[in-house]
């Protein structure tokens, strides 16, 4: 009797660990969506591709150029930020005054473009980081509690996610540029009248969001040991669902939404049906949008006439 | 206006170039398979096997003095692309037989087109049982999933002595077919199936399902899927501290598995063994020349395609490049004494165009495929 | 800066002649001496017509009512599986299946549209996307019903008065017939009260509401009609391919159809048809050219590996991404625009044209939702 209880508990405990890991990754990607949406009301469909590019950038550096992982990590962050800024400047900035439909279609176009570009450069086969290129400590168990195993890599992922979120919170609420971001989210025209360089702040938003996406790409690449050109599409959509769930435009909401969605997915796969695993994210997203479009932590929106 | 004329001229020149690239007098044998995409490494074996056979045939004088030309049709294992590729081959009157396709869903999509065009096709790798009955123009020189699944069930019971197994399958035709056959036979042999979980070909996080398997404490995990996912499954299971046996079917027979240190001990069924000591002279010569040309051992895709191209060549040699005659010739190979003797043994067809062939077991040992000591 | 194809101005007679000649080529295509390439070209032509039907269907939502629908492939798949299953299990005739599939599509369109069409544009887009992914998941996993990933083989070809349609040219005329029917329906709707209500919603939802247009109802009707045309296309697809598989209804198909209408001009019936007529054959032509790139380049003395050629074939959809981005940047109203879409897509110019510039400007700014 006690043994079955222990088994059930360790099963649940391990699923909890799995869910938290997946959730922190979703949260990192979701932040990119939520920030851009908050500032310019655009679903940046290409954000999932930035995440994918992050994984490939670090992969290429580590394998083709033999760069140390700890060097590749920050370089990837920088590269992804640049990619984010490029996205904004090339694709979205010229459309600031255009209808939202146009910007949305452009976002889809950029996503398609980047995905196929990655296909040409890296091919469509699943790639993996060779084990020796990664710090060995990642694969050792940090905590072993009965059957529950937490690896250092999982600890690292959670740590990085938390640190980045904390940093982001500081930027948004305690710096000048953060204030500017919030001002633009409120009213673009008034903000520009107050002397805020709107375009520069928006580009900064893209850079920060993309950096977080790139970090998520690296973490996922080494955690699941698989990267391929279309990985950004599903992860991107799920992260968007997480952002919606948390309340789009709200950074703590993205964290919460990512956590809840990751947990729902793992528990759904573990206890309900593994075949419908991807469907859980979509169903959650549709239900939230229909019944509580403002999400868990978002403010309700008012349509001004 | 001038610009347009120039543009038109460039386009026309390009088209002319493209057309002239195919003007030589040859016997075309199209080979359809995924050569890029996730399953490209399977397609590589197909391509290598086909080119090797064509080269040997051409060296020996070709078909009545004409060279054999292999035309590759890349369908990415996608049913829609497969139908496109099939239409192109079917419309080409110089084509009298197609070698392909690899994935069963691609084969099923191409079938109606070949049937309509009365174009015979021979698949070196589609193992789904429904295919044979669907068209009189379809042949294959590979065994079917139901054979493979029940073979594995008998092997783990009789050779490994395992009693409790869990199944981790992909939601595709191949994987589900194998799982069903395996379960049916396991039931008869009183092997317990502790549980079954699904994944898709876009899954990378297998931990929730594996965690569940871990709690079931099986003797072994059956992975009736493909190598790209199986290698991830095995690694992630190791991270969860799972210590069980792993086995799969011919979909895991890929060099990719060898790079994974956690996959040591994993075994699979395969239609062809490169290191089989009992192999025929032809098979040994094939392994040798394959090694000379490509610098590695042939996998079963290469061997089966090598034989499929051989069958096609033999048929065209015997009755000429006429679609119906080629079809009738192949259908006439219906008993062991009329069989084609290739590197994968004797090939002859039943009334559905299917074959009966044996399977082998091979396992990973120290980063290499090694044929299992005890075969069934 | 304006980049785009400026259509040369022809006299009305020249246009009439061109149209007649075009129609003659389309109708007589099967008897043209095309040799071996004939069946393949006819297949591409049939595919093009099928995509014209789909584009006409999708066009109703973003083109007529201004909402982005990313889940069109869901209805296409519903139509295909409705047709496939009814044929395989009950052997129902093609001519009954077409309306049944369209009805089923409309039903799902209403079920999805009624609760979601009050959402703002981007939320609606993402809900439709989620829906189409769920449709594919259900098709893939409910094996007892759809055979899931095994695909659905053994679908019978349609027949007409006892004659089984199987030759490529027969399918070709069949799809032309369906296309003409859809075209007729869409044209009639466009000119009706319904069509005018949609355009009113598209131009200014709030103003339309103020003059008494029941927005939700009209949007749901639009969505249902669009869905039923998608399902009709799917039904034809199933009876043409004779094998359907969940992988055929991936998200990418939605994007492809969206590309067609963006390219030709959203909201413009002629434009979206031209979009399909240009882009679908172009993807096939690109496949051919890129596949044959390595041997051709080798002749000029440039080595391109077969693998690269194959990769390029796969990545040819990169071009679609570029088309979407460039079209939105330089000619968002499409190559063959209608005036009202053009005005809406170029708010800057519209301001100059509007009599009360300041009023218009203010509306545009406050139109953006605040978060």
Describe this structure in words.
The complex is a heterotrimer of chains A (305), B (376) and C (371). Chain A is mainly alpha-helical and 305 residues long. Chain A is built from 11 helices and 2 strands. A two-stranded antiparallel ribbon of chain A has the order 1-2. The longest helix of chain A has 39 residues, at 2-40. Chain A is globular and about 65 Å long. The model of chain A has no long low-confidence stretch (mean pLDDT 87). Chain B is an alpha/beta fold and 376 residues long. Chain B folds into 2 domains: 24-143 and 281-358, Response regulator (Rossmann fold, 3-Layer(aba) Sandwich); 146-270, Response regulator (Rossmann fold, 3-Layer(aba) Sandwich). Chain B has helices spanning 2-20, 40-59, 79-91, 104-116, 130-134, 145-160, 173-188, 207-216, 227-239, 281-294, 300-319, 323-331; strands at 26-33, 67-74, 98-99, 121-123, 138-140, 164-170, 192-199, 220-223, 245-248, 267-270, 340-342, 345-347, 360-364, 369-371. In chain B, a hairpin with a 4-residue loop joins strand 13 (360-364) and strand 14 (369-371). Chain B is globular. The mean pLDDT of chain B is 87. Chain C has 371 residues and is mainly alpha-helical. Chain C has a single domain (40-316), classed as ABC transporter involved in vitamin B12 uptake, BtuC (Orthogonal Bundle), CATH 1.10.3470. Chain C has 18 helices and 2 strands. Chain C has helices spanning 12-28, 37-65, 72-90, 94-116, 121-141, 143-146, 168-190, 193-203, 205-210, 215-241, 251-264, 269-291, 293-300, 306-314, 318-330, 339-345, 347-353, 357-366, and strands at residues 159-160, 163-164. In chain C, strand 1 (159-160) and strand 2 form a beta hairpin. The longest helix of chain C is centred in the first third of the chain and has 29 residues, at 37-65. The model of chain C is unreliable at 1-8 and 351-371 (pLDDT under 50). The interface between A and B is medium-sized, with 38 and 30 residues.
| Form type of chain A | globular
Question: How are the strands of the biggest sheet of chain A laid out side by side?
Answer: 1-2
* Secondary-structure element series of chain A: HHHHEEHHHHHHH
- List the chains of the largest interface with their residue counts: A-C, 63 and 54 residues
Beta-strand residue percentage of chain B: 15-25%
Our count of domains of chain A comes out at 1
What separation lies between the terminal Cα atoms of chain A? 65 Å
What is the helical fraction of chain B, as a range of percent?
40-55%
Total of DSSP H or I helical runs spanning 4+ residues of chain B = 12
Tally of helical segments of chain A: 11
Amino-to-carboxy terminus distance of chain B: 75 Å
Q: Examine the secondary-structure arrangement and name the CATH architecture of the largest domain in chain B.
A: 3-Layer(aba) Sandwich
**Total number of distinct structural domains of chain B:** 2
CATH class of the largest domain in chain B: Alpha Beta
Structural class of chain A: mainly alpha
């Amino acid at each position: 009797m006690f043994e079955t209880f222990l088994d059930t508990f360790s099963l649940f405990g391990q699923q909890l660990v799995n869910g938290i890991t997946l959730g922190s990754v979703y949260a990192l990607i979701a932040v990119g969506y939520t920030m851009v949406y908050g500032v310019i009301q655009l679903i940046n469909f290409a954000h999932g591709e930035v995440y994918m590019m992050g994984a490939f950038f670090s992969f290429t550096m580590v394998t083709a150029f033999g760069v140390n992982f700890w060097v590749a990590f920050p370089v990837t962050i920088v590269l992804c930020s640049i990619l984010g800024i490029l996205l904004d400047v090339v694709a979205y900035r010229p459309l600031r005054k255009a209808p939202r439909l146009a910007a949305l279609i452009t976002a889809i176009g950029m996503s398609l473009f980047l995905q196929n570009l990655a296909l040409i450069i890296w091919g469509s086969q699943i790639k993996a980081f060779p084990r020796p290129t990664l710090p060995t400590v990642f694969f050792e168990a940090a905590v072993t509690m009965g059957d529950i195993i937490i690896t250092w890599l999982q600890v690292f992922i959670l740590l990085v996610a938390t640190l980045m979120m904390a940093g982001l919170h500081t930027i948004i609420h305690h710096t000048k540029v953060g204030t500017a971001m919030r001002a633009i989210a409120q009213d673009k025209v008034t903000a520009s009248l107050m002397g805020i360089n709107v375009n520069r702040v928006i580009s900064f938003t893209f850079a920060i969001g993309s950096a977080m996406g790139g970090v998520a790409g690296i973490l996922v690449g080494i955690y699941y040991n698989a990267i391929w050109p279309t990985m950004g599409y599903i992860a991107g959509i799920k992260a968007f669902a997480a952002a919606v769930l948390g309340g789009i435009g709200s950074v703590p909401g993205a964290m919460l939404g990512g956590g809840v969605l990751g947990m729902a997915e793992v528990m759904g796969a573990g206890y309900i049906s593994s075949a419908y695993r991807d469907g859980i994210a979509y169903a959650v997203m549709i239900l939230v949008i229909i019944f509580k479009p403002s999400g868990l932590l978002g403010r309700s929106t008012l349509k001004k006439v | 206006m001038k610009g347009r004329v120039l543009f038109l001229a460039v386009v026309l020149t390009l088209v002319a170039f493209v057309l002239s690239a195919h003007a030589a007098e040859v016997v075309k044998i199209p080979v359809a398979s995924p050569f890029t995409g996730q399953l490209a490494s399977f397609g590589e074996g197909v391509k290598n096997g086909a080119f090797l056979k064509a080269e040997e045939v051409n060296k020996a004088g070709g078909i009545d003095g004409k060279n054999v030309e292999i035309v590759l049709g890349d369908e990415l294992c996608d049913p829609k692309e497969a139908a496109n590729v099939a239409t192109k081959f079917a419309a080409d009157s110089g084509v009298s037989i197609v070698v392909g396709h690899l994935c069963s869903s691609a084969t099923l999509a191409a079938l109606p087109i070949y049937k309509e065009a009365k174009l015979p096709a021979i698949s070196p790798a589609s193992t789904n049982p429904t295919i044979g009955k669907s068209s009189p123009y379809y042949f294959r020189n590979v065994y079917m999933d139901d054979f493979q699944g029940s073979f594995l069930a008998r092997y783990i019971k009789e050779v490994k002595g395992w009693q409790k197994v869990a199944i981790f399958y992909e939601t595709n035709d191949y994987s589900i077919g194998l799982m069903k056959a395996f379960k049916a036979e396991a039931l008869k042999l009183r092997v317990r199936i502790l549980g079954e979980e699904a994944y898709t070909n876009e899954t990378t996080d297998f931990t929730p399902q594996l965690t569940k398997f871990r709690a079931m404490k099986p003797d072994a995990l059956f992975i009736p899927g493909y190598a790209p996912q199986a290698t991830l499954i095995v690694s992630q299971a190791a991270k969860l501290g799972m210590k069980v046996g792993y086995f799969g079917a011919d979909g895991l027979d890929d060099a990719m598995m060898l790079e994974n240190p956690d996959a040591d001990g994993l075994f699979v069924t395969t239609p062809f063994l490169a290191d089989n000591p009992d192999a025929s002279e032809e098979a040994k010569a094939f392994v040798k020349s394959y090694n000379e040309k490509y610098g590695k051992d042939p996998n079963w895709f290469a061997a089966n395609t090598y034989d499929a191209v051989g069958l096609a060549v033999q048929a065209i040699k015997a009755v000429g490049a006429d679609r119906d005659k080629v079809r009738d010739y192949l259908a006439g190979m219906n008993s062991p004494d009329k069989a084609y003797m290739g590197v994968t043994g004797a090939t002859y067809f039943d009334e559905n165009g299917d074959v009966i062939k044996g399977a082998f077991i091979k396992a990973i040992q120290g980063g290499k495929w090694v044929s299992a000591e005890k075969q069934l | 800066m304006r980049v785009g194809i400026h259509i040369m101005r022809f006299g009305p007679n020249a246009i009439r002649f061109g149209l007649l000649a075009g129609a003659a080529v389309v109708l007589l295509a099967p008897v043209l001496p095309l040799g071996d390439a004939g069946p393949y070209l006819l297949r591409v032509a049939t595919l093009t017509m099928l995509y014209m039907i789909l584009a006409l269907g999708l066009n109703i939502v973003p083109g007529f009512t201004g909402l982005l629908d990313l889940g069109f492939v869901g209805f296409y798949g519903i139509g295909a599986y409705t047709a496939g299953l009814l044929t395989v299990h009950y052997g129902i005739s093609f001519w009954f299946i077409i309306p049944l599939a369209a009805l089923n599509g409309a039903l799902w369109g209403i079920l999805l549209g009624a609760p979601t069409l009050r959402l703002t544009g981007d939320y609606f887009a993402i809900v439709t996307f989620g829906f189409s992914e769920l449709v594919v998941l259900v098709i893939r996993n409910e094996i007892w019903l759809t055979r899931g990933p095994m695909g659905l083989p053994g679908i019978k070809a349609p027949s007409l008065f006892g004659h089984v349609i199987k030759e490529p040219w027969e399918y070709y005329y069949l799809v032309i017939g369906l296309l003409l029917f859809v075209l007729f329906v869409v044209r009639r709707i466009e000119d009706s009260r319904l069509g005018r209500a949609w355009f009113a919603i598209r131009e200014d939802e709030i103003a339309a509401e103020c003059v008494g247009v029941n927005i939700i109802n009209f949007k749901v009707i639009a969505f249902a009609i669009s869905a039923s045309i998608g399902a009709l296309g799917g039904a034809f697809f199933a009876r043409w391919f004779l094998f359907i598989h969940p992988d055929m209804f991936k998200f990418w198909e939605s994007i492809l159809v969206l590309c067609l209408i963006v390219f030709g001009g959203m909201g413009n019936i002629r434009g979206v048809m031209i979009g399909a007529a240009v882009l679908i054959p172009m993807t096939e032509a690109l496949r051919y050219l890129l596949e044959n790139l390595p041997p051709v380049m080798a002749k000029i003395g440039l080595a391109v590996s077969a693998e690269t050629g194959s990769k390029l074939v796969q990545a040819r959809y990169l071009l679609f991404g570029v088309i979407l981005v460039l079209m939105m940047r330089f000619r968002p109203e499409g190559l063959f625009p209608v005036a009202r879409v053009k005005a809406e897509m170029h708010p800057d110019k519209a301001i100059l044209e509007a009599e009360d510039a300041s009023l218009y400007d203010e509306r545009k700014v406050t139109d953006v939702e605040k978060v």
